[in-house]
Amino acid sequence: MIQCFGDSITKGTPGVSYLKYLEKGKYQNQGTGGETVEGLYPRLSHSIKHGKHEKYIIQIGTNDILLPYLEKSSPKWKNRLRKIDKVKKEGARPSRTEIQFQKSYQEIVDLLKEHEKEAVLINIPVVGENLSHERNKKTEKFNNIIKAIAEKEGLLLVDFYAWQKKTLEKLQNKKDYFIDPDPKQVVIDGLKSITSLGRMRLSQKRNLVLTVDGVHLNDTGAKGLAKLVREKVK
């Protein structure tokens, strides 16, 4: 089975995973909520060294942008993330600079190549459906790093951000609902988005097109990513 590593976007909570819309039995969901680029390395290393899998899909980087933003913009998130940091290892924290992000992402790719694994990279999705927001300016910078690494190492890259951007620009959606300043709402969103009807209602209530909260995918977003992955993975 193809091992699909990533954060809550791969896991599908809140929202829904793109893996729901891919061939059953071919892909294994290895997503975990809150994962960062540095945090992914030990999990991936364990899978590579103790498993017999040859193909991997890597979707990571959102939390390296999202967590610092939430920490800065919301006191409740800041307190929540400080509590999480106390039980996390150093390597599980988000990249604070482009240099740090590039180094950590390159280490993931080096690990895959060292063990001669096939890999497909998925770049970072929009961090909020308002494309002009500073969050997405940072996303584009980090995605340029991922693109450069993919080109240098000869790896396939799924440009999900470009697909989302094109879709959102066509619709000219100007409302910018983004993850609630209270972390408890993310838990509530997870419960409300278990069903496709629940996901649709969340998106409609917030006037969102591809996500349920500005980050986590609804069915339209998940289907779009699944289609792009299917085109790359033969």
Give me the secondary-structure topology.
Blueprint: E1 2-6, H1 8-11, E2 27-31, H2 37-50, E3 55-59, H3 62-73, H4 75-87, H5 98-114, E4 118-122, H6 134-153, E5 156-158, H7 160-171, H8 184-192, H9 196-205, H10 219-232
Parallel strand pairs: 1-2, 1-3, 3-4, 4-5
Helix pairs in contact: 2-5, 3-4, 5-6
Question: What's this, in brief?
Answer:
Strand 1, helix 1 and strand 2 (27-31) form a beta-alpha-beta unit.
Structural account:
One of its GO terms (molecular function) is phosphatidylcholine lysophospholipase activity. It holds the Pfam family Lipase_GDSL_2. The chain is α/β, with parallel strands linked by helices and 234 residues long. The protein has one domain (2-232): 3-Layer(aba) Sandwich (Rossmann fold), CATH 3.40.50. Helix content is 53%, strand content 10%. The chain is built from ten helices and five strands. It has helices spanning 8-11, 37-50, 62-73, 75-87, 98-114, 134-153, 160-171, 184-192, 196-205, 219-232; strands at residues 2-6, 27-31, 55-59, 118-122, 156-158. A five-stranded parallel beta sheet has the order 2-1-3-4-5, sandwiched between helices. Helix 2 packs parallel to helix 5, helix 3 crosses helix 4 (75-87) and helix 5 (98-114) packs parallel to helix 6 (134-153). The longest helix is centred in the middle third of the chain and has 20 residues, at 134-153. It starts with a strand and ends with a helix. The relative contact order is 0.17. The model has no long low-confidence stretch (mean pLDDT 93).
